[in-house]
Amino acid sequence: FVKEGFSFETPPPLNAFILNARRDALADVRVRQALGQLFDFEWLNRNLFRGQYRRSAGYFGRSELSSVGRPADAIERRLLAPFAAAIPEDVMEGRWRPPVSDGSGRDRAVMGAAVKRLEEAGYRIRDGRMTHSVSGKPLAFSIMVNSREKERIALAFADTLRLIGVFPAIRLVDTSEYWSRLKSFDYDVIVETYFMSASPGNEQENRWSSAAARREASLNYPGVASPAVDAMIAALLAAREKEAYIAAVRALDRALIAGFYVIPLYHAPERWVARWVRIGRPATLPRFDFTPDVWWRQTP
Hints:
The chain is about 35% helix and about 15% strand. The chain has eleven helices and 13 strands. A five-stranded mixed sheet has the order 7-6-8-2-9. A two-stranded antiparallel sheet has the order 1-11. The chain has a two-stranded antiparallel sheet with strand order 3-10. A hairpin with a 2-residue loop joins β4 (about 125) and β5 (about 130). α3 packs across α11 (about 240-260). The chain is globular and about 75 Å long. The chain starts with a strand and ends with a strand.
């Protein structure tokens, strides 16, 4: 047997905790941002996955469509100008990254930053629970999962959240109930995957538009209802030249990142394949996908 890893220019799937912004507890972008800061990928990757994964960041990672690591160009700035107040400077400049912890599962610096963000949203730790100073309600939500694999990720996340007085309930439900509740957006937080294309198109409307947020059974699981996101979807669909198209997708990436609707999890750095030594393959592989149907059996 031969084990190989292949890299492609297609964005990896976006595997993430999806925060339902329709819920009162998660409607404030500062709360969603704080929760995202508390996911300890470094601990999870080392203890559960033997260090084999890479942290995901934006929505179109590892491709020319990603805004992460790239300052916005003139076209992007023009597209996003009407929504400048909603896009943080670090996102516009490409400096935004998910926080990196010390891998202990209790990084005080990371937790301190998250607590500060929650304080800006009106929360304080009172009697060991993160509580809103005006309503008196604790910050509470559930994480709905439909597999043991998702459950253990949710439990690891919950262990960190408890350190700052947030106690999420983990709900393991059967497949039928899970998809029924997704259809009607009846959940607080879920763990789901969006498969990304090298050429995003009409499907973006069903995933992120304000209209899809109100449409039952759409794929807008986080309830994104943002004028900036709507405008960037329209711009990418209207683009007729490559430069304008790439700029519009990157601008969409920035608008989505700025809303902190999801907590990106991880992806494999390569496409892993094991094959018999008697199976041959082309020396040059496609740029965007894996095509084992053109491999062949070699004769001795």
